[in-house]
């Protein structure tokens, strides 16, 4: 586990560097908003197109070997992009292609990491392990990496990508210490059949189905809010870009604190209370932005939203890993992520439409009301008895409470 934490920290810094540097590079190659947006679209498309096959392959392959290979590939891709920038041959079409390929490999890495964790720690320790992983990833990718990426890009456009590439290779060395994990599947059928099997398990499993829908709707609502948040800060709060950056850091701080507190909160209040409470806290506090447009109120609401996000991420991820048979982990995680990513892509459209028709406060209010309704509707399926039953039958082939 220590090796995984160290590797996540190193690669997290690289992720932050890349998140800051890629949009900056795109802006130096073109001033067309649609062309710059094409880079983000390419990354989103990879998640929508690759997630399901990636999950099925992760269940077939040795997960330790897979995560080592994909880290090397990601490192080489970033080093190649750095070399293109150094040589002056980087173009926007090349950047779009590299962004798509990199994000596709990242899909495999994400599914592998989520499926690998239960083989490293006991299922009873999943909240502890996920809490530290999420906190470390948030801290490095959102606090350390982006400002450092912007600084390094100002020094030399190629440096952030070269450092990111080296970070993946360094993380690979650390990940080699993880013990070997045999493939989860011993029977090799058609890929399409295996994909359908994982998706069917997710849809038939009452707890997983509800958690996936909650996650998808939560991503939809958060993106609805986030898509116009910068305009809310500038026009409703009459603040600056600096304040916007500070508020994003406050959100990240909330996520970090929530991730670390999740295991202790579970022991004190119970799994259902923290899971459902985290989902509600994720959106409900943001309703204050629609009522009181004030910087301090916004900061408190954003921190509480981040706190709820951290609690929800840790609890929902740990629950998915705990109630899914090992042979299906890759496919179930991929199906789950597909729901979340697909919903996120719609959130920006909804946020823009609501702001255009009802004003910049409307997305925050919609997010608050939407998450309140979701929590009320989802609670019956996440009662302590229902969740406990799901954990007890994790090794069975037929999911509990099928419907």
Structure write-up:
The protein is mainly alpha-helical. The protein has two domains: about 1-185, MFS general substrate transporter like domains (Growth Hormone, Chain: A); about 195-390, Growth Hormone, Chain: A, CATH 1.20.1250. It has 16 helices and no strands. The protein has helices spanning about 1-30, 35-60, 65-85, 90-120, 125-155, 160-175, 190-205, 205-225, 230-235, 240-270, 270-285, 285-290, 295-325, 330-360, 360-380, 385-390. Helix 2 (about 35-60) crosses helix 7 (about 190-205). The longest helix is centred in the middle third of the chain and has 30 residues, at about 125-155. The chain is globular. Residues about 395-403 have low confidence and may be disordered.
- Going by helix content, strand content and strand pairing, the class is mainly alpha
Low-confidence segments: 395-403
CATH uppermost class of the largest domain: Mainly Alpha
Using only CA atoms, what is the Rg?
Answer: 21 Å
| Average predicted local confidence, pLDDT | 84
The helix/strand order is HHHHHHHHHHHHHHHH
Comma- or semicolon-separated keywords:
mainly alpha; single chain; Growth Hormone, Chain: A; globular; 403 residues; 0% strand; 16 helices; disordered C terminus
SSE topology sketch:
Layout: H1 2-29, H2 33-60, H3 63-87, H4 92-120, H5 126-155, H6 159-175, H7 191-204, H8 206-226, H9 229-236, H10 241-269, H11 271-283, H12 287-291, H13 295-323, H14 329-358, H15 362-378, H16 384-392
Brief account:
The chain is mainly α. It is 82% helix and 0% strand.
């Amino acid at each position: 586990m220590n090796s995984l934490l160290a590797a996540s920290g190193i690669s997290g810094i690289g992720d932050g560097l890349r998140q800051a540097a890629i949009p900056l590079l795109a802006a130096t190659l073109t001033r067309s908003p649609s062309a710059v947006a094409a880079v983000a679209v390419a990354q989103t498309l990879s998640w929508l197109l690759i997630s399901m096959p990636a999950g099925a392959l992760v269940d077939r392959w040795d997960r330790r070997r897979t995560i080592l290979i994909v880290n090397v590939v990601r490192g080489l891709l970033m080093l190649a992009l750095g070399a293109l920038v150094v040589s002056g041959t980087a173009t926007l079409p090349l950047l779009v292609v590299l962004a798509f390929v990199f994000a596709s490999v990242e899909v495999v890495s994400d599914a592998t990491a989520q499926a690998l964790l239960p083989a490293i720690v006991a299922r009873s320790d999943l909240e502890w392990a996920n809490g530290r992983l999420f906190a470390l990833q948030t801290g490095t990718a959102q606090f350390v990496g982006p400002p450092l990426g912007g600084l390094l890009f100002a020094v030399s456009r190629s440096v952030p990508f070269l450092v990111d590439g080296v970070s993946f290779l360094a993380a690979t060395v650390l990940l080699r210490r993880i013990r070997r994990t045999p493939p989860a599947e011993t029977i090799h059928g058609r890929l399409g059949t295996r994909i359908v099997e994982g998706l069917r398990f997710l849809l038939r499993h009452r707890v997983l189905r509800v958690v996936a829908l909650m996650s998808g709707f939560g991503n939809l609502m958060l993106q609805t809010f986030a898509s116009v948040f910068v305009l809310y800060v500038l026009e409703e709060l009459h603040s600056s870009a600096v304040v916007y950056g500070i508020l994003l850091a406050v959100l990240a701080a909330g996520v970090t604190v929530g991730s670390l507190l999740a295991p202790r909160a579970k022991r004190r209040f119970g799994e259902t209370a923290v899971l459902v409470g985290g989902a509600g806290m994720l959106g409900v506090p943001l309703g204050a932005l629609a009522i009181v447009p004030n910087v301090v109120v916004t900061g408190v609401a954003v921190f509480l939203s981040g706190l709820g996000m951290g609690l929800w991420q840790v609890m929902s991820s740990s629950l998915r890993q705990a109630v899914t048979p090992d042979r299906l982990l890759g496919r179930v995680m991929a199906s789950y992520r597909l729901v979340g990513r697909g919903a996120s892509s719609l959130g920006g459209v909804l946020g823009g439409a609501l702001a255009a028709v009802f004003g910049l406060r409307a997305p925050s209010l919609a997010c608050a009301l939407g998450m309140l309704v979701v929590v009320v509707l989802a609670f019956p399926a996440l009662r302590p008895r229902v969740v406990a039953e799901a954990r007890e039958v994790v090794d069975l082939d037929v999911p509990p409470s099928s419907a």
